[in-house]
Amino acid sequence: MPGGCWHVSNGQEADYPLCVGARHARNCNFGQCRCSSCARKDHPKLPTYACLSLDDQRRPKEFARDTTGKDDFSENAGPSRCGYYRTELRVKQSSHKGAELAGTIELGDLKVNRLGFGAMRLCGDYAWGRPRDRQHVNRVLHRAVELGVNLIDTADSYGPEANELLISQALYPYPSGLVIATKGGLVRPNRGSWVPDGRPDHLRRAIEGSLQRLRLDRIDLYQLHAPDPNVPFTESVGALADMQRLGKIRHIGVSNVTVAQLKVARSITPIVSVQNEYNLRNQISEDVLAACERLGIAFLPWYPLGGKRGLRAQRIKEVASRRGLTHAALSLAWLLAKSPVMLPIPGTRSIDHLEDNVLAAALKLEPEDLDDLG
Predict the structure, then answer these.
(1) Which of 7, 127, 274, 369 sits CB 3.0–4.6 Å from 365 for a disulfide?
(2) Are residues 68 and 216 in the same domain?
(3) Is 158 a catalytic residue?
(4) Which tens digits make up the pLDDT trace of 38-95?
(5) How would you label 100-133 residue by residue, b for 16+ Cβ within 10 Å and e otherwise?
(6) Do 182 and 148 belong together in one domain?
């Protein structure tokens, strides 16, 4: 019987979250595959997947072909034709989508997968202006949803205002269960400026603008983007609570806050999430994360990969090399292992990077990995 080239996650065949057939042999480094995709020089050669050239009798049972034609193949899988065996096969997709493997977390009465998507980078550089290729942005957003991402984070200051429009233009009417989380309280007078504006009048206008751009009657999660040192924090949070009572907001979150500010916000209205910077290089908000754990509040780490310097940290390099992982996937897996309330929202303009990020949902780091990463 004819065989084929099957790419299998080491030790996790049945739970592999992505359809590898759509990106055939991307990480094959065993030199056994003769697919045209494997010959591409831009594919990383990481020892994460074994390229198994097997006949039907020797193929792992998790990947046995159903000759009745009832196999549940991914609708996104493309043909993967090996020149050596000249047979067309597709890798069977897990019954779970990628992001679902991270588990779930509650945002009030909403339940989302514990790996979201940050949409900021879909704008122009420095989150300013519109993207050059809007159709590509649409494809990225569609792929995120296909991979099980059901929380997308944005803000009125991204663009400004362009980012929310990109999301609604790509995804409206929204799939059932998709949560759009947006933010207000920062204004952009120019490309390089992020100026807090926590005045209640501004926040009310900002919420109405976000509702219009996102084509919503109510925003599932609205976050105060940052405290304004020129406006009493209680007034800013109070304005969000007023809009919640009017039915404009379902749940309220805060961002860039201290433990003391979180306590003040919770004295005014229920808070379901905190969004602060947190990554392997910057853990200044460790006390805020601990408070969220005690209170059962979701913690959304912005800048979760720590930028290029973070991705190149020596300890990440060493563990990533040992495990055969991308630096980004390893960093996200570390965040997910760090706390059960952690809800990373990595962003990217690249579909390949998006798929690599979602790989983190299925990764289980060993104790030695966590010790080495710190």
Answers:
(1) 369
(2) no
(3) yes
(4) 443 443 333 333 222 233 333 333 333 333 333 333 333 333 333 322 222 222 233 4
(5) bbbeebebbebebbbbbbbbbbbbeeebbeebee
(6) yes
